[in-house]
Amino acid sequence: MESSLPEDMAVASLLLEKILPKTGGALRIGITGIPGVGKSTFIESLGKRIIDDGKRLAVLSIDPSSSVTRGSILGDKTRMETLSKDQRAFIRPSSSALTLGGVTARTRECILLCEAAGYDVIIVETVGVGQSETAVKSMVDFFLLLMLAGAGDELQGIKKGIIELADGIVITKADGSNAEAAVSAKNVLVNALHFFNSPVSSWKTPVLTSSALTDSGVSEVWRMILQFENHSKASGHFERTRSAQNVSWFSEFFSDLLQADLHFNESLKEVKRKLESDVAHSRLPARSAAEKLMKSYYEMIRNSR
Ligand SMILES: Nc1nc2c(ncn2[C@@H]2O[C@H](COP(=O)(O)OP(=O)(O)O)[C@@H](O)[C@H]2O)c(=O)[nH]1
Ligand SMILES: [Mg+2]
Q1: Given this model, what pLDDT does residue 123 score?
Q2: pLDDT by residue (tens digit) across 62-99?
Q3: Where are the domains of the chain?
Q4: Whose CA is nearest to atom 4 of ligand 1?
Q5: Ligand 1 atom 14: the closest Cα is on which residue?
Q6: Average pLDDT for residues 252-278, to the nearest whole number?
Q7: pTM of the entire structure?
Q8: How far is the CA of 162 from the centre of ligand 1 (A)?
Q9: In the structure, which protein residues have their CB atom closer than 6 angstroms to any atom of ligand 1?
Q10: Assigned CATH for 6-233
Q11: Which residues contact 211 (CB under 8 A, 6 or more apart)?
Q12: Which of 40, 41, 215 to mutate for ligand 1's pocket (most ligand atoms within 8 Å of CB)?
């Protein structure tokens, strides 16, 4: 599935069509937060809780920042030691050579593969910051934001937008001398969220504290996620979100295919370069340039028949 060789991609498409009836059964959970917030350690702890519940768990990661990937794979394997050795769990870091769009598409397909393979819960960990959060949001049922007490909002890359994407927030490392600060951070957030309405009707985004070190608060997080699942299934939100996600994957894939056509066709690339230069030097309005490129594209298709 991860191969970009055309012959492998053809087999991958066929495989996806065949497994489709067996997909969609898992609960998909996205987990995000700045590097060092404790995502991998938290997933190890939550993951143990999940497999103790008799469920099979897959953990996939999205890390478009290729230069740090090797390090983070090693780090994650040691931080998820129990999970990586347990037969009921599967851990797959994203492959390093991919762009965000590439990682996103592969991870979505990997979710489907894991579902067909019988995994009941799928956790998608975002290692990157920024855009990758929105990418993860677009492929999960529950989106969990991990935050540190005491780290400024700017430091955590928390624009208002990301908090609004969260279905639940957990203040991590609530242990030792940090326990009190975690509770105050939680209270500040609860107040801040007071006026914010979650897009899921009558769901108030919960804020919890937890420590992966002492395992405290982790069961509560799992309970919150299950509560959300019940709640959003009962209201129809769950199914609506899944359908909307599928439709948007479809348009994204289609755009990707168009882009790839443009990218891999030498004569079109040449036309595009020339038009870009015309637009850059104000010799042509952007709209006309786009229309001309479209015309060349149609011609290319006609000629290829
Ligand atoms: N005190 C404490 N340290 C933690 C906890 N969870 C993670 N850490 C430490 O924080 C560092 C970063 O954790 P990691 O899981 O790799 O964070 P990630 O980059 O978000 O995946 C590691 O040194 C962990 O040992 C916790 O609950 N309590
Ligand atoms: Mg990690």
Answers
A1: 97
A2: 876 644 445 555 556 667 888 988 999 999 887 666 67
A3: 6-233, 247-303
A4: 173
A5: 38
A6: 88
A7: 0.88
A8: 21
A9: 33, 35-41, 75, 79, 172-173, 175, 211-213
A10: 3.40.50.300
A11: 172, 173, 174, 175, 179, 217, 218
A12: 41
204-262 pLDDT tens trace: 899 999 999 999 999 999 999 999 999 999 999 999 999 999 999 899 888 888 887 78
Specify the residue with its C-alpha closest to ligand 1, atom 9.
Answer: 38
Long-range contacts of 101-108 (CB under 8 A, 24+ apart): 101/252, 101/256, 102/4, 103/62, 103/63, 103/64, 103/132, 103/135, 104/62, 104/132, 104/135, 104/138, 104/139, 104/252, 105/252, 105/253, 105/256, 106/1, 106/2, 107/60, 107/62, 107/139, 108/139, 108/249
Assigned token pair, 22: 């067996």
**Is the pLDDT reported for residue 153 higher than 70?**
no
- In this structure, what token pair is assigned to residue 265? 């066709």
Where residue 167 falls (left for φ over 0; alpha for ψ -120 to 50; beta otherwise) is: alpha
Run of H or E residues at 42: helix 39-52
Q: Which amino acid is at 74?
A: L
